[in-house]
Amino acid sequence: MRDKKNKGKDIVDRILKDQGSKKLSDISPETIAKGKEFIDRFMEVYGEIPMVDIVSGTWENRKKTNLIKWMMLKSSVNVDGLAEYLGCTKQYLNNKFNRDSFSIDDLIIAAYACNFTLALLENDGKCKCRVMPEEYFDTNPEVLARITKIRNFDKESKRVEYEQKKAELERMKKEYGFE
Fold this sequence. Notes:
Helix content is 64%, strand content 5%. By secondary structure, it is mainly α. Among the domains are: 1-52, no CATH class; 136-176. A two-stranded antiparallel ribbon has the order 1-2. Helix 4 (79-86) crosses helix 5 (90-99) and helix 4 (79-86) crosses helix 6 (104-113). The chain is extended, with a radius of gyration of 22 Å.
């Protein structure tokens, strides 16, 4: 990843390009202030999420891949786990990463697998609609059944692990005389 200075320069360059300007002095101070305010709020909410290129190098121009890789990183979901949610092989998922060929269905399922929710926001930032897999896939029972089964298995696995650790803690309390 690139340092903050380069990220900021990339953002300014993008703004200049979008406004058809050649230099920063062509942009009004109000526009610059709004941009800085937006970036500060964004960084407060999302922390150190890279804004221009989430993954440097190979993935730089693959926006959907970057988004999914960022969600995977934040939630510790691996390629095998995501492939299972998407109902494909690890190799097929890697091909999707290389081609950046994710559909909206894939993005919704990936977000769900990584404990995120896709949302549609108005331009003022207010949430207009959350895309919930249970509602979105209500006409596709196969997909809904697959992701629900995996999520339930994940929850059950965590419950079993919790019970095992709780039993181990109780055993250790008795062994060492703690109450």
